[in-house]
Each structure stands twice: as C-alpha cells, then as structure tokens.
C-alpha cells in the first residue's frame, strides 16, 4: 500500500513517530516529561509560548492531543483524566434541557452517569438499539442535540452502521458521538464516516499497558461544542496529569502493531469458542455469523481484540468457567498486553442488562495456543 501523498503518512507511521523528534536543546529523541504546574507569562498575563497553567494546557498533553487528532482524522483532540471525564464533559457542555439518544449497549458507567447525575439537572434521554435504524430515526426528536453510540459495544459487541447513523443525526440536526474505545484508530476512524466526535477511554488500547488512566475526545471540527468541552475540562478540573499524557503517548507508538496481534488472537479464540459444545453464543464481529459482520467489514480495518461469549448453564456456569481460568485474569478493564476475563453482570450490578451467562474477554498478546488451551481446560471440566 502506498501513502496517499507525501504529507499524509499512514497511521502506522504517525503512531511510530508519536512524540519522537530530536530535542533542539540536547538531541534527545523521545519527548521529555514536563511536570511544571505553571508557566511564565507577561505582566499583563499574555502567554507568548502558549502555556499558562497545567490545568488548562501543558506540553505533554498537547503532544498527545496532536498525534491523536491526526490518527482520528479530526480537527482537535482534548485529553482528560479518564474516559468517564471525557464523556461527562460532552454531556456537561450540552445546552440546558437537551435531549440525548443513547444506544442500549453503551458502557454502563455512562448510562449511570446520565440517569443518576445528569437527568436530575434536566438532561433528557431515550435509549435505543442503535443497530435498528428505524428505531433511531423514531427516537431522534427535534430537540435532540446528540446521538451517542458505541461500536463495537461493551459488552455485547454490537456493531452499528456509522455512515447511516451520521446521516440520520445530520437530518435531525443532532451531532453523532461514537465511543470507539473497543476499536481505536487505525482499526476504526468514525470521523471518516461522518461522526462529529470520537470518544476514547485511552486507559485501554491507546495506552495499552494497563498503567495510565485517560480519556479523549476528537472533534471533526473545532466548533462551539469543542470549545465548550475545553472550558468544562478547565473549569471542572478534569484534566489529566502530564505523566498520564506522556505514558499514553509512549503506549500509542506501538498501537497499530498491538492491534494486529490482539485482533489475530481474538479471531482464533472466537473460532475456538464458536465450535465448543458448552458455548451457547460468541459475540465477535469478525465471525461471519455475527449480525454486524458486514457493517464491521465496511467500517473497520480488522475486528479488534474484544469479544464476549455465553455459556450454557447461565450465571453459575459462567462464574465457574471464569474461576477456572489461569491465563485470563478476572479483572476489569481491557486493552492491555495480558488477557482478562470478566463476568459483566457481576461487575455492573443491579442495573446490568448483560446476559447472566456472559463472559467478556480482553484478548491479550500472549501466544494464542496458550490462550486456547486455558479456555479449553476451563470449559471442559
Ligand atoms: N468507554 C468504554 C467502552 C469503556 O469500557 C470504559 C471503561 O471501561 C469507559 C468508556 C470509561 O473509561 P475510563 O475507565 O477510562 O473512565
């Protein structure tokens, strides 16, 4: 494959060079960590070098934001302390009394945030199955300002049609936000399909090593909502530390390579599970039997490292299977080098809509045969 032109390198090249440039002061190749909380300004508070106070902007954060904006193909990226903080900033920046349409299988934390904390302040919302375009069309009202979807979704790996949803949102005068945490760039680039905002929990694949929290919003244009989200970050203090930005930029340099291995391992694991007699269903968009396979093939470059499956025997059988796993650790989160398993209904609690027999896997970078052997021993007992 060749690059479209000399000035637009492939995402793999952008990632490999993230934060890498000889420092004019000493020739160091990797970006320095700048922890200063404050920056010199003129007597009348002008900032000739562009930085005033760490809570607003800082060099490490700006480096990360510019790389992520390029990878997402957006006009501007804002980095936050967590994925929750990034999502909350969008909701806080919406005009008072806004109506939001949100997909049914979005990350449960956002649904709790909306119903428990923001609905009492006037944010109205409708939950839809975003794979059903007629249902989305019906749910979009004249007062809807935002359509919020996640693809593939957590934890059922539902895939929704980004181009079709972008058209529906535009016709209704709403913006489309896509939580792309399960499929970061270059795997999926929602802005190229007409989305207005991409949301990432960078805690997951973008950092990729399970050791730095973060969230990001990439905007297709540097519009009023982007500016409002910047203000929310500044005023609510939801900025990340420069160290988190530095760690995330470092992780990002290997992102495309890691995603290839995550995807290859997950595809093999999904194939193994789909053929296992104790497994009732496998949710992985790379399987031809997945209802969203054709859409995923159109809008993704590979199918990612996340999958979930349901065992015969419901909750007890799922818990026993998870308990027997040795290489897959029972732990929350995803997108790190090591494989994780989680019984989502247990972690999501009383409001969970996840099937009782469902286990979610974050398939890591181990040798795939070791992963399959572990699943086999856990399922076969
Ligand atoms: N979006 C998705 C799909 C997630 O799975 C998560 C967390 O698990 C989040 C957002 C929230 O991100 P964070 O944990 O960084 O706040």
TrEMBL record:
It comes from Luteimonas yindakuii. GO terms for cellular component: cytoplasm. It comes from the Bacteria. This is Cystathionine gamma-synthase. Belongs to the trans-sulfuration enzymes family. Residues 1-10 have a biased composition (Polar residues). The modification N6-(pyridoxal phosphate)lysine is found at residue 204. InterPro entries: Cys/Met-Metab_PyrdxlP-dep_enz, Cys_met_metab_PP, PyrdxlP-dep_Trfase, PyrdxlP-dep_Trfase_major, PyrdxlP-dep_Trfase_small.
């Amino acid at each position: 494959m060749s690059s479209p032109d000399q000035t637009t390198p492939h995402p793999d090249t952008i990632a490999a060079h993230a934060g890498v440039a000889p420092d004019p002061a000493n020739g160091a190749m990797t970006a320095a960590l700048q922890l200063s909380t404050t920056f010199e300004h003129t007597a009348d508070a002008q900032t000739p070098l562009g930085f005033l106070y760490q809570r607003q902007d800082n060099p490490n954060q700006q480096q990360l934001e510019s790389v992520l904006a390029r990878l997402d193909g957006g006009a501007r990226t804002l980095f936050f302390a967590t994925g929750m903080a990034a999502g909350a900033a969008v909701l806080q920046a919406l005009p008072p009394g806004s109506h939001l349409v949100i997909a049914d299988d979005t990350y449960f934390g956002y649904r709790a945030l909306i119903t428990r904390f923001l609905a009492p302040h006037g944010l109205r919302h409708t939950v839809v199955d975003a794979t059903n375009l007629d249902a989305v069309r019906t749910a979009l009202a004249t007062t809807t300002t935002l359509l919020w979807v996640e693809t593939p979704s957590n934890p059922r790996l539902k895939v929704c049609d980004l181009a079709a949803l972008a058209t529906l949102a535009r016709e209704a005068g709403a913006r489309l936000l896509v939580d792309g945490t399960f499929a970061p760039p270059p795997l999926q680039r929602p802005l190229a399909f007409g989305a207005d905002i991409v949301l990432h929990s960078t805690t997951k694949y973008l950092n990729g090593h399970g050791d730095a929290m973060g969230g990001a919003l990439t905007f297709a244009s540097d519009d009023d909502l982007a500016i409002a989200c910047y203000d929310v970050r500044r005023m609510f203090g939801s900025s990340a530390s420069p160290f988190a930005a530095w760690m995330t930029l470092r992780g990002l340099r290997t992102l495309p390579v890691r995603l290839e291995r995550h995807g290859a391992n997950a595809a093999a694991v999904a194939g193994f599970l789909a053929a296992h007699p104790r497994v009732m269903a496998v949710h992985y968009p790379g399987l031809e039997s997945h209802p969203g396979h054709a859409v995923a093939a159109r809008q993704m470059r590979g199918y990612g490292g996340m999958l979930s499956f349901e065992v015969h025997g419901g909750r007890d059988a799922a818990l026993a299977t998870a308990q027997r796993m040795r290489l897959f650790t029972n732990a929350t989160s995803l997108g790190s080098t090591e494989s994780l398993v989680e019984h989502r209904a247990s972690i999501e609690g009383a409001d969970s809509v996840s099937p009782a027999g469902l286990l979610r896997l974050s398939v890591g970078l181990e040798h795939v045969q070791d992963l399959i052997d572990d699943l086999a021993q856990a399922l076969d007992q």
